[in-house]
């Protein structure tokens, strides 16, 4: 007897590996493995979450009109062209689902966000990996991967897990170099950590160009990761296509209320950005001081640092020792980065602590 067989393209997916929140021996320690906001959530978002209707028997509002309007108001957009998802992860899947299928190609960079490969394979499309330029996005490399089968290009800016950032000019050059029938998806999960001068122009492209979709999330700077709310913006046609395939009640009631309040909590966002700027620079400086051990950080504009272990100590060894010292960071062998650890910026205490632990480990003390 034969059993039903899952699609080969599904079995070709390497499962997503989430960041750990406890050590292997079950201790709760500083979690610097998932790029969450170390300052938590704004008071306003928490209050809105707590005040939201908690009747468990009612479906959420499937059209999320208030959430779409709040997003549109905050960014000067058309609410009808806002798509929302169970995290921006869902929106990335919707973009792949709407524009790619078997026989089509989906391009992303080597060391790009892990979800792009899953999203491409899930719909039976072929992932095409563009080479990096010392871990950063190489626009020319992406453009040289384009064929007549290319349907979607995914780019995260800043990128995760590298933290690297492509300038407005580079993004414009990428868009200008793509055929008009290729959808460029610009994943801006960390956009709020950038200064106004660093705006990559993605949202303007999504407003004016039919072949650009941007995605944003409430999980990172807004500190609402637990409620899983993301959104995207694209042409009316793109958004209509994505609505057809999203899960019908894909954002929770309390999450919608919290997200709306989070958009108004500009002081919290500003404070979180300033905290990140300060401690990202500080940690990068600390890592620069460890260069004699063959350790270096990739320049980052996100809320984490990718630290490369190119000397005697392996990233795996450092990962285990850091765990022992009470710090969970991300070791990424599954993303073909066995030589690297991704360390999220924590509170001041956590950030100072992880740097001191790393120094101690590299110095050979116990
Ligand atoms: C964290 C992250 C997301 C997804 O976040 P959601 O919680 O699904 O909204 C998307 N893209 C990148 C690059 C990320 O790092």
Q: Ranges with pLDDT <50 over ≥5 residues?
A: none
Structural class: alpha/beta
Order of helices and strands: HEHHEHEHEHEHEHEEHHHEEHEEEH
Distance between the termini: 58 Å
| Number of spatially distinct domains | 2
Largest sheet properties: 7 strands, mixed
| Corresponding CATH superfamily of the largest domain | Type I PLP-dependent aspartate aminotransferase-like (Major domain)
Task: Output the CATH topology of the largest domain.
Answer: Aspartate Aminotransferase, domain 2
CATH class of the largest domain: Alpha Beta
The radius of gyration is 21 Å
| Percentage of residues assigned to helices | 25-40%
Total DSSP helices: 13
Determine the mean pLDDT: 96
Q: Order of strands in the sheet with the most strands?
A: 2-8-7-6-5-3-4
- Write down the overall geometry: globular
Approximately how much beta-strand content do the residues carry? 15-25%
Listed once per kind, the bound small molecules are:
pyridoxal-5'-phosphate
Q: Find the count of extended strands (DSSP E, 2+ residues).
A: 13
> How does CATH name the architecture of the largest domain?
3-Layer(aba) Sandwich
How are the SSEs ordered, and which strands pair?
Blueprint: H1 8-11, E1 30-31, H2 43-51, H3 65-75, E2 82-86, H4 87-99, E3 105-109, H5 114-122, E4 126-130, H6 139-144, E5 150-156, H7 168-177, E6 183-187, H8 202-208, E7 212-217, E8 229-233, H9 236-245, H10 253-264, H11 266-288, E9 295-297, E10 304-309, H12 315-324, E11 327-328, E12 330-332, E13 337-344, H13 348-363
Helix pairs in contact: 2-10, 3-10, 4-5, 4-9, 11-13
The protein binds pyridoxal-5'-phosphate.
